[in-house]
Specification:
Keywords: Metal-binding, Zinc, Zinc-finger. This is C2H2-type domain-containing protein. This protein is 38% helix and 11% strand. The strands form 2 sheets. A two-stranded antiparallel sheet has the order 1-2. The longest helix is centred in the middle third of the chain and has 12 residues. The radius of gyration is 13 Å and the shape is globular. One zinc ion binds next to helix 2.
Length: 73
């Protein structure tokens, strides 16, 4: 499910700045950001996408995702 993220990691020249929506921490790499999300926030998974069953730490995140998940049957 996270395969798309691996493509991003293969571009070392691309400077990205990721801001955690939950605790405002800033990360310079997507892997650090993903690790942070998994370890600190996503373990709290309480909200589920009604369409595909994906879990989210916040209601807002699940709502945003669901808006792009309409293609799921
Ligand atoms: Zn955070
Ligand atoms: Zn979904």
């Amino acid at each position: 499910m996270l395969a798309a993220d691996e493509h991003t990691l293969k571009r070392p020249n691309t400077k990205i700045r990721l801001n955690c929506d939950y605790c405002s921490k800033i990360f310079l790499t997507k892997s650090n950001f993903n690790n942070h999300m998994d370890e600190v926030h996503l373990k709290l998974k309480k909200f589920v996408c009604d369409t595909c069953g994906k879990l989210f730490a916040t209601f807002t995140a699940s709502q945003i995702f669901e808006q792009t998940c309409n293609k799921c049957p």
